[in-house]
């Protein structure tokens, strides 16, 4: 319904712990229009995902998913998902480093270690249970988005700062609107 302004790193709200959404409120017009705004904003920015705090709402809602994403052209599709009050359980200790960007950290990319395989649970936009076991980039996106709900932006997880820099330098062939990276 509307594309919202995306807060950038440095905004105090992005470092807050988000509130859970009471399940009886999921069907409310407020939550439903928030979800629609999040989808519209994510699509307008070609994002792989977006968390409610990024548009200034400190609630436990994330959206993610794409068929093909120009920001991550090498990655397999991730089903479009609306995830409320998520819980992530790592499956195994295995972590893998991979490139991440964030709409709240435009123009930059960094290598971030994430659990390779996770289970995630939560509710969808209808209040139905989501319970999935995923790995690879799907698992990475979920961990990145859910970090936004606990006040963590991906640069806070970068271990090797030689693997952190400007997208246009690291990926010169990636032609994206980098002000919206
Ligand atoms: Ni992000």
Give a brief outline of the structure:
This protein is of the alpha+beta class.
Notes on the structure:
The protein is α+β, with helices and mostly antiparallel strands and 181 residues long. It has a single domain, classed as Alpha-Beta Complex (Peptide Deformylase). 18% of the residues lie in helices and 29% in strands. The protein contains three helices and eight strands; from the N terminus they run H-E-E-E-E-E-E-E-H-E-H. It has a five-stranded antiparallel beta sheet with strand order 1-2-3-6-7, sandwiched between helices. Strand 4 and strand 5 form a beta hairpin. It is globular. The mean pLDDT is 95. Bound molecules: nickel (II) ion (NI). Nickel (II) ion binds next to helix 2.
> How many strands, what sense, and barrel or not for the largest sheet?
5 strands, antiparallel
Stated plainly, the CATH topology is called Peptide Deformylase
The number of distinct structural domains comes to 1
Number of helices: 3
The oligomeric state is: single chain
The overall pLDDT average reads 95
CATH-defined superfamily: Peptide deformylase
Overall, the morphology is globular
Structural class: alpha+beta
Helix content: 10-25%
Bound molecules: nickel (II) ion
> First CA to last CA: what distance?
22 Å
Low-confidence stretches: none
């Amino acid at each position: 319904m509307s594309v919202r302004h995306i807060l950038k790193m440095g905004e105090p709200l992005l470092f807050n712990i988000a509130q859970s959404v009471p399940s009886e409120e999921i069907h409310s017009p407020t939550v439903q229009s928030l979800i629609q705004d999040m989808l519209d904003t994510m699509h307008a920015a070609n994002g792989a995902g977006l968390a409610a705090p990024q548009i200034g709402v400190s609630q436990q809602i994330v959206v993610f998913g794409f068929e093909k994403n120009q920001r991550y052209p090498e990655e397999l599709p991730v089903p479009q998902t609306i995830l409320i009050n998520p819980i992530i359980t790592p499956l195994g200790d295995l972590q893998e480093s991979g490139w991440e960007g964030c709409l709240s950290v435009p123009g930059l990319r960094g290598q971030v270690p994430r659990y390779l395989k996770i289970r995630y649970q939560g509710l969808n936009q209808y209040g139905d249970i989501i319970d999935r076991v995923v790995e690879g980039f799907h698992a990475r996106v979920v961990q990145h988005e859910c970090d936004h709900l606990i006040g963590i932006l991906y640069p806070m997880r970068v271990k090797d700062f030689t693997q952190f820099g400007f997208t246009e330098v690291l990926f010169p062939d990636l032609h994206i609107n980098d002000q919206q990276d």
